[in-house]
Records
---
Amino acid sequence: MSKHIGIVACSAEGAALCYRTICLEAEALMGEHRHPEVSMHTYPLADYMPHIRTGQWDRVAELMLGSVCKLAEIGAQLAICPDNTIHQAFEIVQARSPIAWLHIADSVAEAARRSGFERLGIMGTKYLMTGPVYPDALKRAGMTWEIPDADDREEIDRIIFEELVKGQLLESSRLYFNNVVNKLKSRGCQAAVLGCTEIPLIVDPARCPLPVLDSTRLLARAALHEAI
């Protein structure tokens, strides 16, 4: 019997990609049309944003806990959150959660270790790029990192919130991400962390200047393997 996976969602597009990845990739491991039981709960992104913008991570944690408690009530045994930014509240949530969690940045760090990468470029919301989520995980893994410069951070953040979370995938934005990755490559990065769960929807690994670490799919795969 596989574990029931609970997805604590924040933004719809990234959560949908995470859900699809679990269900579609399970077949190779479990048999035709099979996947673990999966449930998802999310409050509107609008409920999260005021607390994210003001750095009130305790308030973010309350929303995440509200979701995970609902999921636990319907039988979820393992929790994941396909949103990198709100992992800044992870420790608060983990300490009070009724079920176990997997951490998205730990999944990325483990994938980087397996590939032999030691220096990573981190892209995501401006809150993620300047926050502790990846630095803490990469320090534990003995890795170093770079983030884009201030202007690029602002533009990446704009693309995420004005385009990607709304399902808008523009070629100009894809090229912009590639340009940022080129800059990170010039600063010694060996791979690019797609540290917003919507970025994998627009960055094409085959056309990106560096290998990519797709946080959304890596978390989904970690949950799948843990579940079975």
---
Amino acid sequence: MNANAVERLNSALEGRYRVERELGEGGMAKVYLARDVRHDRNVALKVLKPELAAVVGAERFLAEIRTTANLQHPHILPLYDSGEADGFLFYVMPYVEDETLRDRLDREKQLPVDEAVRIAVAVASALEYAHRHHVVHRDIKPGNILMQSGQPVVGDFGIALAVGAASGARLTETGLSVGTPYYMSPEQATGDQMVGPPSDIYALGAVLYELLTGDPPYMGSTAQAVLGKIIQGAPVSATSVRRSIPPNVDAAIRKALEKLPADRFTSAQQFASALSDPTFRHAEDASAAFRGGGAWRVATVATAALAILFATMTLQARGRPPAAPPVERFADPFLEGEAPTAFAASAFDLSPDGTMLVYRHNPGTGTILMVRRWDELRATPVRESQGGSNPAVSSDGLELAFQVAGEIKVLAFAGGPVRTLLRGTWPEWGPDGFVYATTDSGAVRMPSTGGAVEVVSRRDPDELAHIVYDVLPGGRKLLLHVALAGGGGRSDAVDLDTGERKTIVDGGGPVYLPSGHLTFGVEATVMAARFDPGKMELLGTPVPVLEGVQMSSFSLDGKLFYSPGASTAGRANTELVWVTRSGEVTSVDSSWTFTRAGSDQWWTVSPDGDRLALTESTADGLDVWVKRLPAGPRSRLTFGTFAERMPEWVPGTSMVSFLSTRGGGLDLWWQPADGTREAELVLDFERDIATYEWSPDGKFVVIRTSGPRGAEGGRDLYVFRPGVDTAAVPLLADPGYDEMYPSVSPDGRFLAYQTTETDRSEIYVRPFPDVNAARWQVSVSGGRNPKWAHSGRELFFHGPSNEMMVVDVETASGFRAGPPRELFGPVQGAISGDITGALYDVAPDDQRFLMGRNLAAVQNDAVGPRTILVNHFIEEIRARVPK
């Protein structure tokens, strides 16, 4: 494309993309570095060659390319955009600054065997995903595999399909072909237009052969010569070129390069499995030991026959199959100073293959995530994981999802940028590259590379949360932990194809094991039963397999890692404590504890400091209670089967407000604190109210709506004046990020709130109610849940590791804030959260903070082993629950 053409392209794409320079040219398109003007990012803009565009036609090409635009996988480079502009057909993909696999091959000639196999397995997972979505790449080659932060991603996915489908037989008229000769399958080489997944498997086999040997499997001086060898050439063996290649890898490559599609692997996943299976053999290599002649062949046959006879006699003598591996237990398998420092929910995760554990650790400077690989002696910190919890290792063991301040982030262990996916909690990986998470609406999922958020299960009003604990084989069914408003939980299964949700058993944390068993928790006991994944139902009576467990994590190879401890299910699990500004902790009432359920914890001190209102879990559900301080009685304010939560003292009145489902959704109600009158509806909002805050004069109530990040009507702030307004109106409602936890200053002139507009939760302040007049950032390295001091001279908030932070403020003339400083570090056993629930309240004298503590976390601290690793625990399950 000459300079005039570049000018034409820039003119045609003005306001959308700005072409900066040419990057290269492929068989179908020229590639340009361009600037995405709307999103302020670099992109790779690819323009179909004019002769190809003329044959293809804009309408058909754009129609076909829509199919590929929906592919979302961690090893597939996504398609951002496509279109026609002034006769140019173009498509847009992320600009990857790292090199292609072709660049690396040109530099290194051959790759280490383990590295080559790792890349091939990752590409195979991308192919498997695409093939399940009926998309064939047709042009797998080293130049289309980009190395992004050490991880392979396949580019131009399905572009060849779009071109081929749009142009049909007329493609040959251009002199261009879909596919690169060295990596074409025999059916492509013969011009067969009906190529399918086996062609991609062939191409990947050819690529892996080249990664290992330095050359494609078939070479020639011309393209015709190469194609002729592909069609009729003798089978090749990578081992004959490089003897260090394992036999199973060579066998897998030879099967992938079979001439007939029917003789290749039936799926890319089978190819990947063969590469990882040392016992895999194919065709002639299975009998290689018997080839040749003379005395050597005779001796080899005789030796093999004797070995088989000896093995047969040994098994007959024993009268039973080989013994199962022994169950092995190891207490606290960590070096000093590297052990986990959290032992309940969200604390750790075993990788699916059981080779490593990711866990929470506090070295004294705040919580981080650590990774301990069992083949190494020392654990190592996970980069950029400060404040992280809920770690989840991907199916291939290459990436980690975790939660920080209510956001789900993903990183590759090998390096590269940390990606923020969505607002939510409890991440879990699916085998197809999706990351599942819990939000206010239920369980959702998003491709780990980013994309649209899809709701996979919606919670009912009596359910607090849907937590995806496992994705069943095949990736089409989920296992949910359903947290209930009345306390406890159950295990449900969800069919993603039909939307059916089916309760499996009472008890939570369901995990399916390759042995065909389902495990789940009841109080502090792990139960197991045989399970039919297809029918989503138990096949027998559950039996206990392990008692005294706070939290556990299974791997697919049968390992179990758990923290022992007593259960608090079915009895009081929370105590309230006062924490001084220096961090000293004392019980509010040592004779009183209560039952808390899920994330909807909430406690608040009355303006005079004589009472507190809180949410407690009862047999009927969630209810509001009022307690006299310091050690006085408590009384129940709300009754019935409704979920009633988040009480607040209404300024200048004797009323307590709360959220209730009695009207259908979560709406705002209030009632006299002594219960002398029935509750009255304050605000019937069109969506669920997540949290709210009264202005100090009681004239305004600021509410935070419930919904996913980035969606209109998501986590936004609205304002309502009881007795004046007929409906709440938007206050801060930018759909690009979340606004949460509003707090109005004592003089009513400023609003502090938590927002994700800088891609992590920070604390900002704006004038109130005219929030658009100014804006000030208060926190500098993350912040959550702001609350004003009653004096109006300080603003408190939680830092990224739950440390209590304070900022000195001055509001007499405008707004000024000093630097944040820490009052005290994380409180042992403190209950924390981010989406809903109060983390703390401030006493009227500003000298103490009301916080909740998890009794199990406190009572089990430093009692016996903190953690236990069990190898081959699956054998114990097989023995107790035989199939």
---
Amino acid sequence: MSEKDFYSTISQSSIAEFKDRGSRFLAYAYPIESIIDFKERLQELKKEHAKAVHHCFAYRLGLDGNNFRVSDDGEPSGTAGKPILGQIDSKGLTNVLVIVVRYFGGTLLGVPGLINAYKTATTMALQLMPIVQKPVTVRLQISFDYTQMNDIMRWIKVLNCEVVEQEMQLFCMIKTDVPKNRLTELKQLLSDMRGVEVQQVK
């Protein structure tokens, strides 16, 4: 999986609602970049839906397949988090969080009913958003003289890199996310410029 140059995710958040025997399942799908993003989204929904019985979720982050988490939040084990993650995985998505908020309707749905409800609500939310391909990026720190700014910014733009941080003084520093498939090219271009230093940042 790590050899890929692109990954699939969703471009923006969406909400879908599924009802079964009085219970309401509100599925919120979000693109996320970090665990901090996940925690913020969950806190927001817990405030917004303070009266809801359950806030179940699953997310997958990164490309190695190891960074994921599921929560049944009080539902019977395996009936919520796993079905949610199953839908994220069946679409081959990463950097995606789905939180399903449940309002209990008074009738117990049983294990098959719950699995179906969480799975369906998640599928509905994910279907609302087009899936986008994003480049796998490597972060570089580039240090250079102010006079070289125009050339460096031009290459960053041409190769579809994204500037994440910059300090512009007499000596400048830029941190940029470089698409993995353009990395060698950019390093080569920069190595031809005098006094430019390039470091890979974790």
---
Amino acid sequence: MTAGDAEVAGELRSRGLTEVETAPRRLAEYSSDASLYRVRPAVVAFPRSAEDIAVAVEVCRDRQLPVTMRGAGTSLAGNAVGSGVVLDVSRHLNRVRRIDPESQAAIVEPGVVLDDLQRAAAPYGLRFGPDPSTHSRCTIGGMIGNNACGSRALRYGRTADNVVALDVITGTGEFITAGHAAGTAGQSPTLSALFSVVASYLGVIRTEFGRFGRQVSGYSLEHLLPERDFDVARALVGTEGTCAITTKATVRLVRAPSLTVLAVLGYPSLAEAADAVPGLLPLAPVAIEGLDAGIIDLVRTERGGEVPALPAGQGLLMVELAGSSGADLDEAVTSLRAAAGVGRSGGPDCVVADDRRQAAAIWRIREDGAGLVARPAGGRMHYAGWEDSAVPPERLGSYLRELCTLLTRHGLTGLPYGHFGDGCLHIRIDFDFGSPRGTAAFREFLLEAADLATAHGGSMSGEHGDGRARGELLARMYSAEALSAMAAVKAVFDPADVLNPGVIVQPRPLDADLRPVRPHTYHAGLGFRYHRDGGDFGTAVSRCTGVGKCRADLTATGGVMCPSYLATRDEKDSTRARARVLQELVSGAVPGRWRSAEVAESLELCLACKACSADCPTGTDMAAYKAEALYQRYRGRLRPAAHYSLGWLPRWAPLGARSPGLANALLTAPGLRQVAKRVAGIDPRRTLPKLASDTFRDWFAARPAAAEGRRVLLWVDTFTNYFTPRVGIAAVAVLEAAGYLVELSRPGDCCGLTWISTGQLDTARRKLSRSLAGLAPHIVAGTPVVGLEPSCIAAFRGDARELADESVAAVGASVRTLAELLTATPGWRAPDHVRGIRALAQPHCHHHAVMGWGSDATLLAAAGADVQRVGGCCGLAGNFGMERGHFEVSMSVARTALGPALDNAGNVVVLADGFSCRTQLDQLTDRPSYHLAELLAGAAAMGA
């Protein structure tokens, strides 16, 4: 931080902004958005009011310092980064102030997340029309900045078409309520000057602006024409914060369709799918989306995801149709099939997604497109930059063919998708920034691509805006006079050029400010192998492209990422921000590197839940990166107390089990327990789990010899053996009832989980390798191996490949959950007592991330149980919630989804396979919680 930066921060604080930060970690978090660009700000502030924003603008204007607005930071064009003051409105200015069902309008602050607005409008049967794929985290202010559109803009229009009025602050500091201003221009110096500018450029505005729906590049000056009633609000939409800053918006709401249906058409190629679009537009569909089938393949092969039934073909069209009744939908589908030529020779295949879950799964693939295509296995990283061009829909097929030819000529590839009904094409391209000519080749391609889009009457951007990626290209799309008109408008609103300078008007070169897109390599002395990333930690942490899904609340759909961000709503606690700090570490920009305060602060509240490895479209695995950081930080050094107490739990538990009564007494006695917790680094508000009076192994050894059956090896984990033997006892009963002869894994074997989570990776490697070597003969002999603790199975199925000796690492993939084993057992069916049971299930985070909870859901559904699955994390997450300093966040995480679900559940059985989940539930509620094995074993075992 420079002296000047400190002065700016000090002045902002002295004038009433209470949250102003200049810490290196915070600046790293805000140095990038979801684009290729990196611009480190001088100050990051979190305004609480329009007055705070006005103060920031005034301070920046006086000091000639840029001011950049930021919502969720999901910009793919570099619209949300700046070198001066970055104002994040998402933390405080995020209220839906009013829903007016009579006028079908909403008044919102700029930091309102789109999905939150949709939830507020839904009880009135209303919605905001445009819905970009980032709807779960993008803000209305960001949508206004970019003129966002999304899939359903085909029916509802762009953001500009749905804005009624804007309260803004100009670069001069003037407060304006912008709307239809033809009769009120004289009341504002800014609007009066703007009226004169428009009068000077009427001809060029009429001929070059607003030529087709997705012409988003540049300013939308067509709204300022007299015949459009000088609509300043709509004209400001898409100016990317370069003319004025929105402090409040009045937006139009639309009636949500009563019913919708999704039909998917399959074509031999994506270009042929694009050719078919004009013939479908007369049907007035809600959306027509294009998708390269290669993206579907990525979901299947790389992410291990289940893909709904889809038609054959390399190019898919997703067509959403609306109606007020089932008969309407049937008629709409019949019309679609006829218009598309389904059933005729050479016509496309068609699949209709009648089931809502099936349709949602297909939409999820489409919405995750940008992340899914970023890191295909065995190939180069795919980047934004030319990811948002648009042409009139009737030109899309030709444009797509010529763009593919251009890519081939440059030796580049990409998987296209997009809003084909509007002629908007998205594609990430594998630019080789690591080559000597990488940046120059990037520039050459973009210049040629811009000329190609222009030749087809298109726009550089169809919804993402120009930002730093395409501002320079506007000169290839617009005439000199049109560029002058935009510059004149900018000068009226922001004569000092402090509002997001270098964007649209007087743009920065498109190859300036590129962040290090070739990851700095880091191979030496790593704890994990990072096999997906060529053994390079730098490549691994650069998986994060900044799409910001970690800021979304995914709990309603069973997602988990990112529990700490959902608890704190602080960018630093998002997976994205942590990745940014680690990227800075690898590049050498963080003094002290692994042992720096910045890295420690960034990772402190990461629960290591592993959810990001599954929920993030790019597969960012922050749990592994945190373990690596702890490994590097404490190698050869004294560790925190919790690393020895909780991290070494598999060593301490056997010692305590020699005299469990005494151990429990010592850990629960008044005075002693607080001393023990303090010494162990455990939060004093935590209740410690008690050791069982007899271990599971002792019970198993004392029982009568079992009858014959097919052999199964039961993995005995530390938690089941020493703390909850009832789970193991129930599992034995269930397995024997299924016809298995149960044997136990070797005493002393351990998956190494507690050492992994605390970064003690050398010990974890030894433990894990030894255990896998013990399992190997059973796996080779065809004996199934089943585990009960999800985190242990996840260690075998996930961490083993990255950590264990390579000679045995693959063995872990064969370890199964109880549900996986039972659903694959011929003739097995759940006992009758399960039918009709109402249950609330909290899947363990590692279960969700590594194995998936599908087998459990299938088993319970087939058994006739009525199960509500809770999304999100329980908050304990192994050692995290036990450690001193984490209690409040742990409880806040629990209250995100689990707490409300318990409050509203009524009389249900609470299912939780994870020991940590059950431990947290014990502290949250008086209700008992049970493992799946206990449910299947019956009420007697459940009460044991």
